[in-house]
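Quick review question:
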């Protein structure tokens, strides 16, 4: 890398553009950091994080990743560049606030999740797909399938756990779980972008815990499925 930047500086000198060594080294280090952040493990970790976190808080994921790109905290892949658009940030930020408060009200949270049951999974798949985009069609499809599966798993875990917690008459357990999910989404996105390998290990743990929760709370899972079926069948009859 040092040889490469030395050659670039020499070439600029031949064009009459004089760049001191310190500036060249700073630019080189920045470029190396960007390249390291966008290697294959980082891209896979980002795709998995977007899919998993979308199952909990889709709008928060879109807003957080978009702002990270705008602030220069992370170079976004070309397939996710639209998340930095002011209109996308404005809409996702507004919906983030709506979801934040809706998720704190017992049973309203379950209704909100039911409405978004068929939004978060394809959105999680689309975000994961966008990590690779047209640059690598094969990996984009793989990432899309991974993101959709992780989003569905996270969503099923969230809805099942909320169905169990909402049986309690007091609202504090619901609030605590909701705030935990808020923090979890932020932690997942941060860990995936800063420490991809550690995120991979954490993801395996989270998936195992999710499967165990779904098994333990199976009766609540069935109740969620029945509620979703009646909700959408009722909507179909009205239509």
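Suggested answer, residue by residue:
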């Amino acid at each position: 890398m040092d040889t490469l930047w030395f050659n670039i500086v020499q070439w600029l000198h031949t064009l009459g553009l004089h760049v001191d060594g310190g500036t060249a080294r700073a630019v080189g280090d920045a470029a190396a950091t960007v390249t390291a952040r966008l290697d294959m493990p980082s891209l896979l970790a980002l795709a998995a994080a977007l899919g998993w976190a979308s199952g909990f808080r889709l709008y928060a994921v879109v807003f957080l990743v978009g702002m990270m790109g705008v602030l220069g905290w992370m170079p976004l892949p070309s397939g996710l560049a639209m998340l930095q658009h002011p209109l996308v940030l404005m809409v996702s930020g507004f919906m983030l606030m709506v979801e934040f408060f809706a998720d704190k009200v017992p049973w309203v949270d379950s209704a909100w999740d039911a409405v978004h049951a068929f939004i978060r999974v394809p959105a999680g798949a689309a975000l994961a797909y966008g990590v690779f985009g047209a640059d690598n069609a094969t990996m984009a499809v793989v990432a899309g399938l991974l993101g959709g599966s992780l989003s569905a798993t996270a969503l099923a875990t969230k809805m099942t756990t909320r169905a169990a917690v909402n049986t309690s008459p007091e609202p504090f357990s619901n609030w605590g779980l909701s705030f935990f999910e808020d923090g979890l989404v932020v932690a997942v996105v941060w860990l995936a972008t800063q420490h991809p390998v550690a995120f991979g290990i954490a993801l395996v743990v989270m998936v195992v815990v999710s499967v165990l929760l779904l098994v333990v709370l199976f009766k609540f899972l069935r109740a969620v499925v029945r509620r979703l079926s009646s909700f959408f069948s009722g909507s179909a009859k009205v239509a």
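Why it works: The two ends are 63 Å apart (CA to CA). The CA atoms of residues 221 and 237 lie 24 Å apart.
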